[in-house]
């Protein structure tokens, strides 16, 4: 695996002295995200939240303008741009890497021109247009697997073998990115916990993270924070899933994940510090 993950203006160490899991903080500027929808849809609130994440030790701030919760409706390009561009302009020089969470090539293009360091695509750069937008720039890329679309992904998820399906998807997408000359040093992979998967599928993928990492020799991102799989295990509503989310995050790190996408930055950073002291 590459020593560094190249992410726009930033390089994150993946191994060696001083390296640690990379913490990506979630900043949803939407009215309907599953956990914090509506909390940060106004610019001042979003900036305050970002400032708190920076103080808490975040590495990457992931800005999303369209909810991808199960059953979520799509929004227009214009609405998504209206939501995300002001916060991108406000944070692009904040001293932390900025990521845009979008699958729309038009939004990717505008966000990259505005200075984001990473594109996080829940559809895994499925369209040739999306791949072309990111092919000749220096931003980091997160390639995520999702079965179907947010509107129907949790209706009846089914696989012959979920890990084989995710592996095949990553292989195809990486080949397509390779053909466009994309340097794999700026790519990470996200198996897509909760995106068209049952609890059994999610647990199976968790146990397979090291295999994904070893197969592709790329860093793995795990997005588990407050998700329904945590709720199914602990029997708690979304606002009471912190402990379960921290346990899942450390479990993912133990299985080989190098990036964690989380709501609770301070608590995750603290948990990583304790885990590293013990494991080292």
Automatic annotation (TrEMBL):
Record flagged with keyword Transferase: yes
Q: Which InterPro entries match?
A: DHP_synth-like, DHP_synth_dom, Dihydropteroate_synth-like_sf, Pterin-binding_dom
Q: Pathway it acts in?
A: Cofactor biosynthesis; tetrahydrofolate biosynthesis; 7,8-dihydrofolate from 2-amino-4-hydroxy-6-hydroxymethyl-7,8-dihydropteridine diphosphate and 4-aminobenzoate: step 1/2
Q: Which of UniProt's keywords are assigned here?
A: Folate biosynthesis, Magnesium, Metal-binding, Transferase
Q: Which PROSITE patterns match?
A: DHPS_1, DHPS_2, PTERIN_BINDING
Q: Which CDD domains match?
A: DHPS (cd00739)
- GO CC list: cytosol
Q: What is its EC number?
A: 2.5.1.15
| Xref: Pfam families | Pterin_bind
| The protein's required cofactors | Mg(2+)
Any idea which GO molecular function terms this record carries? Answer: dihydropteroate synthase activity; metal ion binding
**Which reaction(s) does the protein catalyse, per the Swiss-Prot or TrEMBL entry?**
(7,8-dihydropterin-6-yl)methyl diphosphate + 4-aminobenzoate = 7,8-dihydropteroate + diphosphate
What are the recorded Gene Ontology BP terms? folic acid biosynthetic process; tetrahydrofolate biosynthetic process
**Location of the Pterin-binding domain:** 21-273
* Role noted for this protein: Catalyzes the condensation of para-aminobenzoate (pABA) with 6-hydroxymethyl-7,8-dihydropterin diphosphate (DHPt-PP) to form 7,8-dihydropteroate (H2Pte), the immediate precursor of folate derivatives.
Q: Which NCBIfam families does the record cross-reference, listed alphabetically?
A: DHPS
Q: Which family does it belong to?
A: Belongs to the DHPS family.
Q: What protein is this chain from? A: Dihydropteroate synthase
Q: Which gene encodes it?
A: folP
